[in-house]
Amino acid sequence: MDYIDLYESPLGPITLASDGESLVGLWFEQQKYDKATLGACEARPDLPVLLEARRWLDAYFGGKDPGPIPPVNPRGTEFRQRVWRQLAEIPYGRLTTYGEIAQRIAEETGARASARAVGGGVGHNPISIILPCHRVVGANGSLTGFGGGLPRKIALLELEGVDLSKLTVPTKGTAL
Q: Given 83, 127, 133, 156, which residue is catalytic?
């Protein structure tokens, strides 16, 4: 059984999901791959981990570094788990690239990892914002995509005080 709650953010409604102990999902309404990993759900806004996630999001959307993330347990393959652990390490207000994440995974595992494969893992991140996939950009400075939509990615980066002047917005492709 999974437990859910709805959070009203300045960028639109967000569904929070938990397995009872940890967050397993955080999606904007109609986000790509939203709720794909959930089983049967019950509304439980009083669940401690969901209350903790709400406090974290309140601080975040208040323009503050919210500090340590709530407990998370994203569901996915071993490779995607590695990608998502790397996302959790990206500091507030900082950016990294798909290639840099691939390099860190290669160093960790001793096996080559491609930026494209990392992109797939980032794109399927089930706990957006808290596992900050919006902080990942292309090697050429392209903002690429975000499951919640490129305008939200830009808004999240602006909220964190990221200088967007050297970044570019793609004009074609699936990244939009």
A: 133
